């Protein structure tokens, strides 16, 4: 089936096929911000920028503010549906489960940045102050297990994750457990951190960010499909850009990490700190072309059509259009 989010062949308005999405270009989307007040304080914006990202304040206001407002609307609607279902079923008062948002996209496309901005913004609405953010990298198999399975060069591919543990984690959240734990990954040591966990306590919203959060269910040993974590999402965002643009962002980030994190002797990438610029570019391109690029093409891009909303970025990280599933 053709990807319903693909623009190919859809340039001629007259021939445009019916689509399950409504698309708003930058101007139409930004107009939604209207008189909305940005809930972020100066401090918070500074903190978000402090994470090494040149976040444009107009971008925060014109793109992420309407997005967080839209999400808040969905959270409110889910709450009303919860109450009506409870009344309909007459089963007492089971507490409402957290609203789960998946954030998907390639390595280096800006998932973490998007997820962190949304977390901060959503936490400002009094209806849902407790917003947790969990990244799926904690569910990667540890390096020794990846070595054993011959997957060290496939880090980030669906099979490099403990998918059963990840599904259990999301099922526990959507079962309404008060406290749920996830393992932690360190980009510095390039491995899962043993014996450390992130604890999510009574969240109103949980954002789950990762390369593969929109992967369809796997076919199990008995030939039947299992559950996909996206079966438990209330909303999902796919962060999108041209593949050659993302490759360039990956190389740029690698170069800036060479000046910072790679200088830490504890870094797995310390061996790259002394590379010349040309050597570093070649090394980053080699990692992209052998691991992250193929993973994008083979596994991540095919899931774009499953998202509730696609944020399409240009080379300067500005969002060019937003595509939203019709309801
Ligand atoms: N909205 C944005 N504005 C400016 N730079 C951004 C934005 N989003 C991401 N970046 C930059 O792009 C690179 C990748 O972003 P990141 O959020 O780390 O990606 P991911 O989590 O998908 O790997 C980083 O260098 C980050 O600083
Ligand atoms: C840790 C990652 C797999 C991303 O994991 P995610 O949180 O998206 O599940 C990725 O950032 C990564 O390290 N990939 C391996 C190839 C590389 O070094 O770029």
Strand portion: 15-25%
Q: Looking at the structure, what is the overall shape?
A: globular
CATH class: Alpha Beta
Strand tally, please? 9
Q: How are the strands of the largest sheet arranged?
A: 1-9-8-7-2-6-3
How many strands, which pairing sense, and closed or not: the largest β-sheet? 7 strands, mixed
How would you describe this structure to a colleague?
The protein has a single domain (21-325), classed as 3-Layer(aba) Sandwich (Rossmann fold). 36% of the residues lie in helices and 18% in strands. The chain has eight helices and nine strands. It has helices spanning 26-31, 42-49, 57-89, 111-122, 143-148, 163-174, 243-259, 277-300; strands at residues 21-25, 99-105, 131-135, 179-186, 191-201, 205-209, 235-240, 309-313, 319-325. A hairpin with a 5-residue loop joins strand 8 (309-313) and strand 9 (319-325). Bound molecules: adenosine-5'-diphosphate and ligand PAZ. Adenosine-5'-diphosphate binds next to helix 4 and helix 7. Adenosine-5'-diphosphate (ADP) binds at residues 52-56, 59, 105, 107-113, 249, 253, 317. GO terms for molecular function: kinase activity. It is found in: Cytoplasm. It holds the Pfam family PRK.
């Amino acid at each position: 089936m053709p990807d319903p989010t693909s623009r190919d062949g859809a340039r001629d308005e007259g021939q445009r096929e019916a689509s399950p999405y409504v698309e708003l270009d930058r101007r139409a989307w930004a107009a939604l911000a209207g008189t909305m007040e940005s809930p972020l304080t100066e401090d918070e914006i500074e903190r978000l920028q402090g994470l090494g990202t040149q976040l444009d304040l107009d971008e925060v206001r014109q793109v992420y503010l309407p997005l967080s407002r839209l999400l808040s609307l969905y959270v409110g609607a889910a709450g009303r549906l919860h109450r009506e279902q409870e009344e309909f079923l007459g089963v007492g008062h089971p507490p409402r489960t957290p609203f789960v948002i998946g954030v998907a996209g390639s390595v280096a496309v800006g998932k973490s940045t998007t997820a962190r901005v949304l977390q901060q913004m959503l936490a400002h609405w009094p209806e849902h102050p407790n917003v947790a953010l969990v990244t799926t990298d904690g569910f990667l198999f540890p390096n020794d297990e990846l070595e054993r399975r011959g997957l060290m060069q496939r880090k980030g591919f669906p099979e490099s994750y403990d998918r059963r543990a990840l599904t259990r984690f999301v099922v526990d959240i959507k079962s309404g457990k008060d406290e749920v734990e996830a393992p932690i990954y360190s980009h510095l040591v390039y491995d899962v951190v043993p014996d450390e966990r992130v604890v999510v306590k009574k969240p109103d919203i949980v954002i789950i960010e990762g390369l593969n959060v929109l992967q369809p269910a796997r076919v199990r040993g008995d030939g039947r499909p299992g559950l996909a974590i996206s079966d438990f999402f209330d909303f999902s965002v796919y962060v999108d850009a041209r593949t050659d643009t993302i490759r360039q962002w990956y190389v740029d980030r690698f170069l800036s990490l060479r000046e910072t994190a790679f200088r830490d002797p504890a870094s797995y990438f310390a061996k790259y700190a002394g590379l010349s610029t040309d050597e570093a570019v070649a090394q980053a391109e080699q990692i992209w072309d052998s691991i992250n690029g193929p993973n994008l093409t083979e596994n991540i891009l095919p899931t774009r059509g499953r998202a509730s909303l696609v944020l399409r970025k240009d080379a300067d990280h500005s969002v060019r259009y937003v595509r939203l599933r019709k309801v």
